[in-house]
Design a protein that fits this description.
207 residues, alpha+beta, 2 domains, four-stranded antiparallel sheet, 31% strand
Amino acid sequence: MKPCLLETICCQDGRLKGLAFHQERVRRSAHALGWTTFPELQHILIPKSHRKGRYKCRVRYRENIEEVEFTPYSIRPVQRLTLTKADHIDYACKYEDRSLINAAFAERGATDDVLFVKHGLLTDTSYANIALWDGIRWLTPKQPMLQGTRRAQLLEQNRISMADIFVTDLYKFEKLALFNAMMDLEEGPVIAVHPTNIRQSSPFTKK
């Protein structure tokens, strides 16, 4: 059976935001998996009861949409992260199966989330892309676990730039921001880059 994929779309006051970026990711994922067809997201109907406020529109799909669910959304605070190796995790497509990500998240200890490191490079947290402030500009990992739709939008707007960011260079940065389809760069959690806020559970080296 074909794997089930997800799109998580921000529904703000009755409008699905960033829909073109989500549709492009659906198209790209379908192509990567060898599917001959894929769903058109513009056909999603928004219930009248969800046309004021912010909701998370969760779309389960294969070659067709299988389920659409709307739930209220609020940004959860994140103050501390644990660096976690993720060389074994492939999440290039937004799979419904997040068992490996969830297992790593469960081992985060007293921190709020994990920050994945893949082959010595910073990638994402369990639910968000990241950007790091070097005092001049925001840099986002060139090789994330998942190419997020908000990330694509921020790159197009030249609000962030791509770079390979080695975990060994982490503490050269001032702060780290989390963002995803549900929260913009200025809305998500921002963490001061310091060993008390970003815990390193094991040694990392460049590869």
